[in-house]
Amino acid sequence: MKQIDGFEISTSQISERIIDIKIKDETINKLIFPFKKFDLTAIEYKPFTRFTIAKSLDDLSQNQLSPLINKIIRERNLGCFIISAQNTNSNIDDIFLVKLSTAIAHLIGSPNHDSMTGKFYARFHVKHEDMSDSYLRKAYTNMDLHTDGTYVKETTDWLLMAKLEEKNAEGGETAMLHLDDWEYCDELFNNPVGKENFLWSSPKSKNIDYKVEHPVFSKDQNGKPQISYIDQFPEPKNMTQGNFLQKLSDCLEESTNKVITKLPVGSAIVANNYFWLHGRRPFKENKDLSRELLRIRGKFFHKNNL
After folding, report:
1. Residue ranges of domains in the chain, CATH in brackets
2. Could you tell me what percent of the chain has a pLDDT over 90?
3. So what's the pLDDT on residue 303?
4. pLDDT for residue 304
5. Per-residue pLDDT, 274
6. Average pLDDT for residues 17-35, to the nearest whole number?
7. Rounded to whole angstroms, how far apart are CA atoms 227 and 8?
8. Residue 126 pairs with which residues in a beta bridge?
9. Is the pLDDT of residue 297 over 70?
10. Which residues 6+ apart lie within 8 Å of 73 measured at CB?
11. Nearest to 200 by CA among 252, 147, 161
12. pLDDT per residue as tens digits for the range 180-222
């Protein structure tokens, strides 16, 4: 993998399909000034400021970072990278990480409006006690493999998840699976039920007042499988669809080719949402458990607009 100024690029030890991008200390230090120029209110209220900090990040790589991450995220054999600081740096706090994640996202595409928070990003905690209506915050329940954006009208090409904080956490590892590594992909993809329209809804906390219809499986421009699926939100119309979803769920969770990793605080994982599924293993019970995550998801820029 080609090296670029201010960054260290390598193939991840957890999967040959994932690229590790480490931001060198001198690059982090050079980001402090342009990042502090805008507070979070400005970044949330004035969309063009997000592109300003994205350009600041890209400029520090001699404008080599943007083409690299766009190539990774679109390439079928890869489609995923993990980006983090090379070393512990006292200048990195949760605000810095929100801005860094914003900059990375705006080098890839346009983030969707997140109805759960009313912003272009969402921050949410996972704690010991939970009264939510989805698996997102349930610490002691396995979050099965899924993709994002199944229940919204917006295109969801990619997903960024950053870990802002983690305390008293044992377990909770990230699980991921590339469709081309899934042992049951051909069998399920070739089942005609997977090409039928399914009805998808969402719980009240998502603040979405409509339902959408789409199949579980589709094809990319090369005829390869793409998936749009999450276990909690489909409403099967009949026994055939219900049984198909159960088999799909079982086959995903039984896969022996899942990538399991413990992402450190300060890291962000960015994945193609069409052929990478993601999930989370349950935490070990602890009344002092606290984890805060940031999520941004959206659509690619048109290639001519990169």
Report:
1. 7-179+255-305 (3.60.130.10)
2. 86
3. 61
4. 46
5. 98
6. 96
7. 32
8. 291
9. yes
10. 79, 80, 81, 108, 158, 270, 271, 272, 300
11. 147
12. 999 999 999 999 999 999 999 987 878 888 999 999 999 999 9
Confirm whether pTM is higher than 0.85: yes
Q: Which two tokens stand for residue 132?
A: 């939510």
- pLDDT band of 305, cuts 50, 70, 90: very low
At residue 253, what is the residue type?
E
3-class secondary structure per residue, the chain: CCCCCCEEEEECCCCCCEEEEEECHHHHHHHHHHHHCCCHHHHHHCHHHHHHHHHHHHHCCCCCHHHHHHHHHHCCCCCEEEEEECCCCCCCCHHHHHHHHHHHHHHHEEECCECCCCECCEEEEEECCCCCCCHHHECCCCEEEECCCCCCCCCCCEEEEEEEEEECCCECCEEEEEHHHCCCHHHHHCCHHHHCCEEECCCHHHCCCCCEEECCEEECCCCCEEECCCCCCEECCCHHHHHHHHHHHHHHHCCCCCEEECCCCCCEEEEECCCEEEEECCECCCCCCEEEEEEEEEEECCHHHC
